[in-house]
Amino acid sequence: MTQSVPAAGGEPLGEPAHPRLALRTSLARLSVRPRSILLLSLVPLLGIVFGVVGWLVDWRLGVDSAVYRAGAITLLHGDPLYDANTLPPEPWWALLPFTYPPTAALLFVPLAILPVQIAWGVLTAISVLAMALVIRVAIGSLPTPPAVRRWWSSPARATLLFSVVMLGLEPVWRTIFLGQINLILMAIVVLDVLVVTTRGSRWGGVLVGIASAVKLTPLVFVAHLFLTGKRREAVNAFGVFVGLQLLMLLLIPGDTIRYWTKTISDTGRIGPVHWAGNQSLNGLMNRVTDLAPWASKAALGVAALLAVPAVWLVLRFHRRGQALAALLVTAFFGLLASPISWSHHWVWAVPLIVLLVSRLPQTTFAAAWKRWVGTAAVAAVFISCVLLALPNGRNIELHWKFWQSVLGNAYILTPLVLTVVLVTRWAVQRRRERARDDASLAR
In three state form, how does the secondary structure of 260-275 look? Predict the structure, then answer.
């Protein structure tokens, strides 16, 4: 067990004082529990079965995974990825632009050998297992010793339970339904930052670099590595990202140059920024200002202001040995600051809820009702599907009433409210400590 070095004020510095997560040990224990293996494999196997059945009866499964597959086939055929708003290999029910970097098309090549529906089934299976991995790593990263965690008396059982419950979160089931890769990218980042990098491996940061090459938003975790003192890992991550872009420049120079000079700034290829599904500051500002020409710039300004408390929270959590909490701050800041953060991008609600549940005290509801209510409220936001219940589309969001705007921006407001609560609570605690110190000196 590693021990943290206490800093002034009693706050530990460095790595958390808890046993290192041993994935090999966990897998070894799982291998001798056939019932656990069956339960963990049930949903992934169902995904593959649905994919095969969907292929046989021609179901429309996985709009986004169909686009991924089409991008890979287009790359293999040597055709342009970004010249048109659709790709020739796309099925008629998934005629959408390919908006990812050229590197993504290369990494999606394995999907090209599968029929559209089976590709969706395979992605579903991998996504569910990736979510289970995130939950297991999150549990292993909690700073509280296992002996006093009544919730985690059996990490394997807790992982299975959470994996089933989290399927009810709107970002999770929408990611699976669309054939998106959000759960997979989250698992890659979590595994790198909380396991590989924490152990000081020379491969630290490599997975973050790969995730960033698939979808640019994980680049925010390069900054996270740098801020938390993992400078070598941050360099690794950025180096892998740049290296993959140079590789694509050699393979498909025309598409690569077009992406980085034109496509990357063309948000019209992604969708209307003011649609309710865009739960980012950019979406919020465009909705509340009726698409004012300065709305996106104002969103960047707000994000720049939020970067100050975000960095402060990351450093504070890191110094207290709370690596998971620090990572979540970066993840949610990235979601807020990104020009487009569709509701299914908010799969980071999964480890957030795990963390909040782990912090529920072993006491009665009356003695800790604030934490219980807060945890329930966060879970309710992502389970409720409130974004689907509100009228949206065809610019209806621009005419929402006040209460509709509050509910329609619930994902955005959740991390903002949590930040205010944390900062306020710590400020009050600091004031009380100073008052006690002053009283002691007065004596």
Answer: HHCHHHCHHHCCCCCC
* Alpha-carbon torsion angle 94, 99, 105, 108, nearest 10: -50
Which position has the token pair 């699976």? 176
Checking if the pLDDT of 12 tops 70, the result is: no
CB-based contact 231:237 (threshold 8 Å): no
C-alpha–C-alpha distance, residues 285 and 115, integer Å:
40
The answer to which of 37-41, 169-173, 236-240, 347-351 has the lowest mean pLDDT is: 37-41
- Tokens matching residue 160: 């299975």
**What stretches of 78-167 show up as alpha helix (H) in DSSP?**
102-107, 116-140, 155-165
Q: Helix, strand, coil: what percent of the chain each, to 5?
A: 70, 0, 25
CA–CA dist 279, 269 (Å, integer): 17
d(CA 252, CA 106): 10
Residues 6+ apart with CB under 8 A from 12: 4, 5, 6, 319, 320, 321
Average pLDDT, stretch 177-191? 97
pTM: 0.91
CB 261 within 8 A of CB 334: no
Element of type H or E holding 72: helix 63-77
How far is 255 from 35, CA to CA, in rounded Å?
A: 49
CA distances from 193 to 147, 213, 330 (A): 25, 17, 12
Distances (CA, A) of 257 to 83, 122, 241, 247: 12, 32, 16, 12
E strand or H helix that includes residue 5: strand 5-6
Q: Can you tell me whether residue 345 is helix, strand or coil? A: helix
Q: Mean pLDDT, the chain, as a whole number?
A: 88
Alpha-helix residue ranges (DSSP H) falling in 360-401: 369-383, 386-389
Residues 6+ apart with CB under 8 A from 353: 162, 166, 169, 375, 378, 379, 382
Is 103 in contact with 248 (CB distance < 8 Å)? yes
d(CA 351, CA 359) in angstroms, rounded, equals 13
| Distance, CA of 333 to CA of 13 (rounded, Å) | 23
Mean pLDDT of 73-78: 97
Arithmetic mean of pLDDT, 44-52: 95
Distance CA 41, CA 44 (A): 5
pLDDT tier, 251 (very low <50, low <70, confident <90, very high otherwise): very high
Q: Residue holding tokens 């865009």?
A: 278
* Residue 321: its H or E element: none
Q: Do the beta carbons of residue 410 and residue 387 sit within 8 Å?
A: yes
